[in-house]
Automatic annotation (TrEMBL), chain A:
SUPFAM superfamilies: C-terminal domain of transcriptional repressors. It comes from the Bacteria. GO terms for molecular function: transition metal ion binding. It comes from Aquimarina brevivitae. PANTHER family: FE(2+) TRANSPORT PROTEIN A. Residues 3-74 form the Ferrous iron transporter FeoA-like domain. Keywords: Iron. This is Ferrous iron transport protein A.
From TrEMBL, chain B:
Mg(2+) 2 binds at T25, G26. Its main location: membrane. It is a multi-pass membrane protein. Mg(2+) 1 binds at N22. It comes from Aquimarina brevivitae. This is Ferrous iron transport protein B. It is found in: Cell inner membrane; Cell membrane. Probable transporter of a GTP-driven Fe(2+) uptake system. Residues 4-171 form the FeoB-type G domain. NCBIfam families: feoB.
Amino acid sequence: MKITIADLKRGEKAKIKDITSDVIPLKLLEMGCLPGNEVQIVQTAPFQCPMYLNINGSHLAIRKETAAQIEVQILHP
Amino acid sequence: MSKQIKVSLIGNPNTGKTSVFNLLTGLNQQVGNYPGITVEKKEGICKLSRGVKAHILDLPGTYSLNASSLDENVVIELLLNKNDKDFPDVAVVVSDVENLKRNLLLFTQIKDLHIPTILVINMADRMERKGISIDVEALEKLLHTKIVLVSARKNQGIPELKELISSYASLSKTPCVDALTFAPDYFESLQKAFPNHSLYKLWLVITQDVNFRKFDKRGIEETPDFKLKSESQLKRMQQQETIKRYKFINETLTKTVTVDQRAATGMRERLDRILTHRFWGYFIFFTILLLIFQAIYDWSSYPMDMIDEAFVWISESLKGILPAGPFMDLITEGIIPGLGGIVIFIPQIAFLFLFISILEESGYMSRVVFLMDRVMRRFGLSGKSVVPLVSGTACAIPAVMATRNIENWKERLITILVVPFTTCSARLPVYLIIISLIIPDKKVGWILSYQSIALMILYFIGFGAAVATAWLLNKSLKIKSKTYFVIEMPGYKVPMFKNVAINVIEKTKAFIFGAGKIILAISIILWVLASFGPNDKFDNAEELVKAEYPNLSEQELDRKITSTKLEYSFIGYAGKAIEPVVAPLGYDWKIGIGIISSFAAREVFVGTLATIYSVGNDDEETIKNRMAAELNPVTGGRLFNLATGVSLLLFYAFAMQCMSTIAIVKRETNGWKWPLIQLSFMTAIAYLAALLAYQLLQ
């Protein structure tokens, strides 16, 4: 099963896998959401949406449905 | 006039670009619009060291040259059009030292357009605290540019920046990265087809949906040996381009920038833990809102009383100076009370703009967007609708414009349609005067007064109407649009005094002069209409009254004559004509006139009543006292009693009553359809609510 950012819990870290889907908005890439980058969940609003992320020092918030498009590999501390 | 160097300030949002602009230009700046669109155009003049001047254009903040909004289109349209009168001699790219990586993406794109470019690394004062050190010389070499470390907060680096701007001719025009290498065949054939244009420019023309005059997409589509790719293919290529650029940026920064992780203080994390907390986050947000409304109501009451009295004094002293006659009447009974009705609200409007700009400058507004997104989506809105809804408490016009960064068209349209329900500052004059007439001036406990609670309820009613209407629109509108939502969460900053002050002054000025013009014109027209009548009943008012009521005292007689005159004036006849429509709401014909004249702008209502009630009334009184003294011609009781008051408050809470908002909605939605729908449902709701309130409370 694919693991995406939407599956992560608060404080968890993961590494972004290849970005292949053209569903992912270009703006997200431009703000630093790139393959190979480390992503950490800073905070989630009630019902896990939106999600506040720290991607290699870039802080941004996205909705869960977008987060579910970004495949990651969980990093264990 | 000597030649000016044309400078464009470009940068990501939240990099302090506007602070740099303010430091370069001081108060020597003006805000206008780009021709034909409502994007705010900020420009100013800056004196450089050797007597040379620079014309500085503060372009809208953008994350890249791949435009996704009207504001961002402005940036590429300018940078791709060498014939534009504002085309820069030099581009100054402003970046934030803590977000250098992301900020450099835009920088590499601008370099690809062969424009001389200076890189400003702003907030340099934070470097030490954050453990960041930069090898500026090496970075300059890799990026083919000149770099200035600037601290807008500490006013450092500005002379160096000015120096670089004046020697712009020696700056390199060479791009720093070759990003278009992932599809060699495609790009080679493209360049061959159009050898006179730079490859990146061609690529932007293909991928962007903007108007480049003369040189647009069709020019490329019509070329036979060159085929356009599908949208999805283009998007994949843009992704590859972005990845390529970031690869270059990462390599460059690894060589030149070191960050000592131990120095990180974690202030941001600690604040975020509380401010975006599932419970405390909301609690703090609502507490802040409550404090703002209390402050607007309480703190500004002192300067407001002073202004009110000052206008009475001016009017009275002019009566002593000017020769008696129609001219003096026009000034003391028409213009001055009309203007007084708007000047009095400067303190409140300034406070409101002050709080909103502090919330935005500090970075807190993004946290509110984060907190509210889920809730707002239930009603068909976006978390980003919170910013328009909050700034709508100042004015619906900038609020409608602030909807531009909502990516989803349906969410954006709904936000535009419901924003005018929020209690804008133009409603305050109406609310405040009516609240002070119908709600007792007493305190509950220590701080809150009944009057400020009443005001807060009105704010909630406005917000509630916005949200409820949004819910209905969301259910009934059948619009499909791609949805996504990305928002940057900037670091927290202490707001800079200069930025906040300039913002408050500019916005308040625009409000006062914009409203002032309409009010001045309307109060003159009203005065004329109230001072003359169509037949001799107006001129013979005195005899008519004396004949009908021979036994009245002098004072009562005077009052009767005044009101009879008004009744037979032009305005009296007009008011009588609409009385049947407004009577079920508990209004007399004078209030009816107020409502009609305030269709242009709500705040005109108070000015209108002030003008109408002061015509022929020589008593030294404030607007409020005059209104309190009005009697209901039918019941004989006070005209502004609870029922009429509440009915008026609700009418103004829901009715559109603002021509400028209609105009801006027309522009932002590209047609008359939506503003007209909006106008009809708002007026209908307003009338029904006022009717119900009056009939129930009467």
